[in-house]
Amino acid sequence: MTAAQPGIVVIGVGNEYRSDDGAGIAVARRLRALFPTGVTILEESGEGTGLMQAWQGAAWVMLVDAVRSGASPGTIHRLDARAAPLPMGFFHYSTHAFSVAEAVELARSLDELPAHLVVYGIEGANFAAGIDLSPAVEQAVEAVVERLAEEVRLRDLQPPTKQV
């Protein structure tokens, strides 16, 4: 990434040792195999200030995390975080001080949101200790990888924004 032409950052959030909480990490790892260069792909625990640092300077950010909203396991939610606040109870809280939604809202209040911030939430079923994703979440991970790969390709085809 350069200051004149910020790039695309994909952030997978979660804990791979808490079953479905590892969905975001799984997406990031699979995308890294598809885009070994040209796209910054990060794995984050979900700690708010770390997320804000991870997307700093990027024009396009796509973040993936496991969620608990009451929908069926494997449901995929796509939220435009620039258009509206994220639901506070939506994201699975970790042991950190604040959640993904709180980090986004803090960045919004500080006027530090990226120009484009898309958040994918994958509805989890099991957040207990373990390394395997539940079958519905595994299928959702594959679907999100396909969707994000398409979004990344679309972003790459658009001409860079002129800096004034």
Report on the structure:
A 5-stranded mixed sheet has the order 2-1-3-5-4, sandwiched between helices. By secondary structure, it is α/β, with parallel strands linked by helices. The chain is built from 4 helices and 5 strands. It has a single domain, classed as 3-Layer(aba) Sandwich (Rossmann fold), CATH 3.40.50. The protein has helices at 23-34, 48-55, 100-109, 135-157; strands spanning 8-13, 40-44, 60-67, 76-80, 116-123. The model is unreliable at 1-6 and 159-164 (pLDDT under 50). It is globular and about 35 Å long. β1 (8-13), α1 (23-34) and β2 (40-44) form a beta-alpha-beta unit.
Walk me through the topology.
Blueprint: E1 8-13, H1 23-34, E2 40-44, H2 48-55, E3 60-67, E4 76-80, H3 100-109, E5 116-123, H4 135-157
Parallel strand pairs: 1-2, 1-3, 3-5
Antiparallel strand pairs: 4-5
What is shown here, in short?
By secondary structure, the chain is of the alpha/beta class.
Strand order, largest beta sheet = 2-1-3-5-4
The CATH architecture category equals: 3-Layer(aba) Sandwich
Kindly report the average pLDDT value.
Answer: 86
Quickly count the domains. 1
Q: Tell me the CATH topology.
A: Rossmann fold
Task: Give structural attributes.
single chain, Rossmann fold, disordered C terminus, 4 helices, 5-stranded mixed beta sheet, alpha/beta, 20% strand, 164 residues
